[in-house]
Amino acid sequence: MKKTDEEKLKKVEESDLFDDLFFSVAAEDIAFCEEVLQTILQDKLLKVESVIVQRDERNLYGRSAILDALCILGDGTRCNIEIQKEDNLDHIRRVRFNSSLITARESNTGDGFDEVITLYVVYISRTDILKRGKTIYHVVNTIRETGEEIDDGLHRIFVNAEIKDDTDISELMDCFTQKYVNNSKFPNVSKRVEFLKKDEGGRRNMLSLREEFIAEGREEAKQEVLGLREEFIAEGREEAKQEVLGLREEFIAEGREEAKQEVLGLKEELKAEGREEGEQKAAIEAYKRCIQKGMSKADALEISNLTEDKVQNIL
Fold first, then answer.
1. Dist. CA 255–CA 263, nearest whole Å
2. Is 136 in contact with 92 (CB distance < 8 Å)?
3. Contact between residue 24 and residue 69 where contact means Cβ atoms under 8 Å apart
4. 188 touches 29 (CB < 8 A)
5. Is 70 exposed, middle or buried (0-12, 13-18, 19+ CB in 10 A)?
6. What is the pLDDT of residue 222?
7. Calpha distance 122→51 (Å, rounded)
8. C-alpha angle with apex 225: 219 to 231, nearest 5 degrees?
9. If you compute the radius of gyration of the chain from its CA atoms, what whole number of angstroms results?
10. Is the pTM of this model over 0.85?
11. pLDDT (tens digit, 9 = 90+) per residue, 165-224?
C-alpha cells in the first residue's frame, strides 16, 4: 500500500541527522558544514569553500565510497564527513578504504608524493564504536619504539553521540540525535534542521529527494539481483561445460579401454586360430606319411588323430 504525502512527511519529521538522506541534504548548506567542522576540529576560523554530497552530480567517486559530505576547506584541504548509525561494521577499515579512494581520486598523474592531498576524515557515529569512553578520538600513526607521531597527511577523527562530557562537541552530538534542534551555540545547525522540517519548501524538497533516494535504492537492488542472476547463469553454463567435457573425456577413456580390450581379444583369437591351423596341417602331414609308408587307412587315421570325414574335407 502506497504511503500518503502526509505519512511521508511524517517520516521526514521523525528523521535526525544520523539519517543518511537527511544529513546529506542538510550538508548541502556550507554554513551548516562549517559550524560542524569548526566545533569538532576546534578551529573557529575554519572556512568551507564547497561541499560535495553523496548524491551530487559532481560526486565522481560512485557508490563504492561513502561521501556523506566531502568539504573543500579554504586552504584546499579535503575533509570527508561520514555519518554512521550502525555499530556492527569494521569502522577503522571502512575509514581506511574510503580515504584511500578519495586520495587516489584527488591525485593527478605525475604528482610527486609530496603533493598527495591532506585529508581529514570526521567519522560521526551514534554509539561509542571505539568503546574507550570518550566523545572524540584522534587516531594517529606512531613509531612504536619511540612513541613519536608520523604525519602522512591523513587525519582520522572519530566522534560519537553516546558519551556525554559537557563539551561543545558532546552538545553538538546531542543536536544530531534530536528531531528538532534549537541550540543558540549552533545557530546554523538549528536553522538548517528547522528549514528542512518546518519550511514548506524544505519539507517538499526532502519529500522529493526521499522518493528519489528510495527509487535509486530499488533500482540498485534490482541491478544487483540481475547481476547475480547473470553470474549464476554464467556459473551454471561453465559448470555444465565442465561436466560435458568431463563426460567426453570419460567416454574417450572408456572407448580407448574398450578398443584396447577388443584388440587384445582379437590378437588372442588370431593366435588360437593360428595354433589350430598349424595343428591341423601337422596332422594331415602325419596322415600322408603313414599312407606313403604302406600303413592301412585306419592306422593312419589313428596315428594322426584325425577322422575320415575331416580328412575328406581337407583333402
1. 12
2. no
3. yes
4. yes
5. buried
6. 45
7. 14
8. 135
9. 44
10. no
11. 999 999 999 999 999 999 999 999 999 999 988 877 666 667 666 565 555 444 554 455
